[in-house]
Amino acid sequence: MNLEATYSPVAMKRWEFWAVGAVVALLLLLALLGRGRHDKNAVVDFVSTAQDIQLALDRFAAEHGGYPPDAANFGRPIGLNTRYIRWKPEWLIDYEVGPNQAGGFYACLEYCGPAATARYEGLCAEPEYRRDFADGQPIPGRRNRIWVISEDARILPPPPPPPGQ
Questions:
Q1: Strands (DSSP E) found in the chain
Q2: Rounded distance, CA 1 to CA 34, Å?
Q3: β-strand pairing of 93-99 with 145-153
Q4: How far apart are CA 37 and CA 162, in angstroms?
Q5: Do residues 67 and 97 make contact, with C-beta atoms less than 8 angstroms apart?
Q6: Other CB atoms within 10 Å distance of the CB of residue 47
Q7: Which of 58, 62, 117, 158 is deepest in the core (most CB within 10 A)?
Q8: CB burial readout 6-30, b (16+ within 10 A) else e
Q9: What pLDDT, on a 0 to 100 scale, did the predictor assign at position 40?
């Protein structure tokens, strides 16, 4: 038995090169198709969480005469404390407020995390999306989902900055 025998690509037959190439191409294709895949339950969880957030925001609006102002990134809306809901930034849900093109404001949630990384797409700002995909339905060509809290919301002004700022 020759212990010094080593692997040499030159010793491979032509069909073996093609077989190795096909396997590498297949693995590369599978890796690219799997890139950005998400948990199948993520969207179901978003819809359930969005319903809970809407209940909390509706209670807040009833008690304060309006919805809170826009929140930064995935943070809890201003004033929506744990009495209403225990907001978790890991939900990757952005609370957004903006003009509704009818002279008022909308309040909307954008789920930014159906894939491996969070990506804000500003979908709530599009009136067509708010009209046609308001309850977490898939939006063609987009990975994020939205949940419209109110299309004609009274929005409270942001609180004044703390003294000394």
A1: 93-99, 105-111, 145-153
A2: 44
A3: unpaired
A4: 43
A5: yes
A6: 14
A7: 58
A8: eeeeeeeeeeeeeeeeeeeeeeeee
A9: 65
List the alpha helices (DSSP H) in 35-126.
Answer: 42-64
pTM of the model: 0.73
Name the residue among 142, 57, 165, 145 with its Cα closest to residue 106.
Answer: 57
């407020």: which residue's tokens? 97
Whether 81 and 75 have beta carbons less than 8 Å apart is answered as: no
Q: Measured in whole angstroms, how far is the alpha carbon of residue 9 from the centre of its chain?
A: 47
Name the amino acid, one letter, at 68: P
For residues 116 and 139, what is the distance between their CA atoms, to the nearest angstrom?
18
Residue 36 structure tokens: 């950005």
Encoded amino acid at 29, one letter: L
Radius of gyration of the chain (CA): 25
Q: One digit per residue, pLDDT tens: the chain, 165 residues?
A: 555 656 666 677 888 878 888 888 887 777 666 554 556 677 788 899 999 999 999 999 999 999 999 987 788 998 899 999 999 888 899 999 999 988 999 999 999 876 667 888 999 999 999 999 999 999 999 989 999 999 999 999 988 887 876
Tokens of 123: 């979908």
